[in-house]
Write a structure and sequence with these properties.
It contains 16 helices and 7 strands. By secondary structure, the protein is an alpha+beta fold. The strands form 2 sheets. The protein has a 4-stranded antiparallel sheet with strand order 1-2-3-4. It has a 3-stranded antiparallel sheet with strand order 5-6-7. Helix 4 runs antiparallel to helix 5 and helix 9 runs antiparallel to helix 11. The relative contact order is 0.07.
């Protein structure tokens, strides 16, 4: 006999738990404290099982019957509703634990060793500011393309913040495209680790849904402007160590971070090589810089200043600092009149453009610039690739600078040719 709404409502607690049947496996279980629970008993594959439908009055008699109907249909299809419910619970827990923030942190920890500390810090700051704030608490498998696009479009409209100054030096559009690239890498990691099945960043990969970003090169000067630049540098009111740092960057076109982190044990005067260890390189690969005669002379002059220290360029004022400030090179360049015209990284573009115009092979120039090797297996062994050609290239580059100075008629005190 079927239960009535009144019977369910007026069921009173007894000394022991008892049950009121509604037929076809559904019953109301009443405990000694008055709690009322809907239960459904069913049999599948010859085994009897029981599953809960919730408590009364949160789940009414009518709702409990609707659930019974749905469950009987599921059973008829050969599906165990109890096992299905347990799977759904595990999935819910799995999704709750695998939020975007949790997976992003795991991806970051997994890949952190591939990056320099500075790059890793900037990358995580970008993730934290632009992605975690918007998507962090969401189960990563639930994030849609539209949600991601909404988060990235907010980046386009944001003002430059102090923390993001370096990232946003070329505007919000650059940051938005970088955020898209980073998010795609995180989602791909989630797919590989079976947290989700598709990448919501994939439909956005062509960038058409974002404001277009036109990449800008680092500002630099032309080869014919080198003599005037060096004369201004020589006349500048800054330390000799700073002047030597900038001259070495011009002659070797290493990155600023590589210069700042190098030690005296990296310099081999006899072999005329500057071996930059993998841990300070952007691509985490050892890099050899062949040294011209002019560069050797600069190193010898620098040795008088910092040869007793571990670093080539130790901090000069704030002794608590571990390294020369990352802003030192660019500040000196600005002060001598090249604000917006040249930065330390611009020496690399200057050398690349000039050496390509001189007819040197692009592969040799790219290798000397320590640009990324597309073939990762090959890249692991190519730190000495084209070394003889690169030695010639570096000497010719230094000689070209000397010839420009001589032709220009400037007097440069130090290690370049002195013209009277």
């Amino acid at each position: 006999m079927l239960l009535t709404v009144r019977e369910v409502m007026e069921a009173k607690p007894k000394a022991k738990m008892y049950r009121l049947a509604d037929g076809k496996g559904l019953f109301l279980q009443v405990d000694s404290r008055g709690g009322k629970y809907w239960r459904f008993r069913y049999k599948i594959s010859g085994k009897e099982n029981m599953i809960g439908f919730g408590t009364y009055p949160e789940v009414s008699l009518g709702q409990a019957r609707d659930k019974r109907f749905a469950m009987r249909k599921t059973i008829a299809e050969g599906i165990d509703p109890g096992a299905q419910k347990r799977t759904e619970k595990r999935l819910a827990v799995f999704r709750a634990e695998n939020t975007f923030e949790a997976v992003a942190k795991e991806w970051f920890r997994t890949n952190k060793s591939k990056w320099t500390p500075e790059h890793a810090d900037r990358l995580w700051r970008r993730i934290e500011i632009h992605l975690v704030g918007e998507l962090g608490k969401r189960p990563i498998a639930d994030i849609s393309t539209l949600e991601l696009l909404s988060a990235i479009r907010k980046v386009e409209g944001q003002k430059i913040t102090r923390d993001e100054k370096r990232i946003k030096r070329r505007g919000g559009t650059e940051v938005s495209h970088r955020v898209l690239q980073t998010s795609s890498a995180i989602f791909n990691y989630a797919i590989v680790t079976e947290r989700m099945k598709s990448n919501p960043a994939f439909p956005l990969r062509d960038g058409r849904a974002l404001k277009p970003h036109k990449a800008k090169n680092y500002p630099t000067i032309k080869a014919k402007e080198i003599p005037e630049f060096l004369q201004r540098l020589e006349d500048a009111k800054t330390s000799l160590q700073n002047k030597l740092a900038i001259r070495l960057m011009l002659l070797t076109f290493v990155r600023t971070g590589e210069l700042r982190k190098s030690t005296w044990k990296d310099v081999d005067f006899e072999a005329k090589e500057w071996r930059l260890p993998a841990h300070i390189m952007k691509m985490r690969e050892e890099h050899i810089v062949p040294l011209s005669d002019q560069a050797i002379e600069l190193f010898k002059e620098l040795q008088k200043l910092s040869g007793h220290r571990e670093l080539l360029f130790p901090p000069q004022q704030h002794r608590k600092q571990m390294l020369m400030s990352e802003n030192t090179i660019n500040m000196v360049i600005k002060r001598i009149g090249y604000k917006g015209k040249l930065v330390g990284h611009g020496f690399r573009a200057l050398a690349s453009t000039t050496l390509n115009e001189m007819g040197y092979r692009a592969d040799v120039i790219e290798r000397q610039l320590a640009h990324a090797e597309p073939n990762k297996i090959r890249g692991a062994y190519n730190h000495a690739e084209y070394l003889s050609e690169r030695q010639e290239l570096m000497q010719k580059w230094a000689d070209l600078i000397d010839s420009l100075i001589s032709k220009n008629g400037k007097v440069i005190i130090g290690n370049f040719k002195k013209v009277t």
